[in-house]
Write the structure tokens for this entry.
Amino acid sequence: MAEPLLAVERLSKRYPVTGRRGALLHAVDDVSLEVAPGESLGLVGESGCGKSTLARLLARLIDPSEGRIVFEGQDLAALPAQRFARMPQRGAIQMVFQDPTDSLNPRYTARDTIREPCLLLGGLGRAAADQRVDEVAAQVGLPAALLSRFPHQLSGGQKARVGIARALAPRPKLLILDEPTAALDVSVQAVVLQLLDRLRRELGLATVFVSHDLNVVRLLTDRVAVMYLGKIAEMGPSASVFAHPAHPYTQALVSAIPGQGPRIRLDGEVQSPIDPPPQVCRFASRCAAVQERCRSVAPTLHAGGAGAHAAACHFARWTLGAAA
């Protein structure tokens, strides 16, 4: 079996809480996962579940509190984010941000924006960098006539293409996509998503795709990880997870997709992510199937379905494979 391109081991990110001495907000808590070369992994979950924080950790934009981020055999978590930003390996992991307007320098033309990582990370001279700009602009469908324009002169879809081209310019092996179409008009979203899927397949890129849109994740990813309050609740092949969700939380999310049957509504209050009790299932306060064990023993990911489909639930409802 081929070595994973990215292997995350027991990764955590905690933030101090203002005004509460010693209190910590557990944004990402003890997450482990792998991404194979050319594979697309989806990250889904409600707002505040930690998926965007995890994406920024994987992109090495912020430093973890604990854990390992092993990329091509090297533990990048051991390198401070500011130092990693100046290293050649930075070009191998790139990110496409949620809002293309906020992520583009208003003083840079589209050409300047795409050329910058070629000069800083790609080791190219000016002429070679300009040639790379023309090449990647054509790949993302950005007309050459638009390369001299500033962000305020571009449409939302055009700015999104500039952001994608900038990420592709240093020839990355892993692309982190954090809600890449959330700020775009609905009419433009489908075009940009089709572009991203085509580029991933043509270039053989591995991607981590963060999204609220479960339908999109189901169609564009090979595997999916469902996050809840900083932890992975369920993970497995996208087809298996969406067709046979085993965790009660995943079942509720999937039921919200049109045509998936009766909607499962979650009652109860969301548990606070500030210093959560370590021996309690974090979904217990909203779970209709909660039992006493859920309040005294924290569940861990364990396989129960086919194809390495796993859920962090003591009473996961498997409809494929052996019972949990």
About this structure: The chain has two domains: 6-221, 237-311. The radius of gyration is 21 Å. Residues 237-311 form one domain.
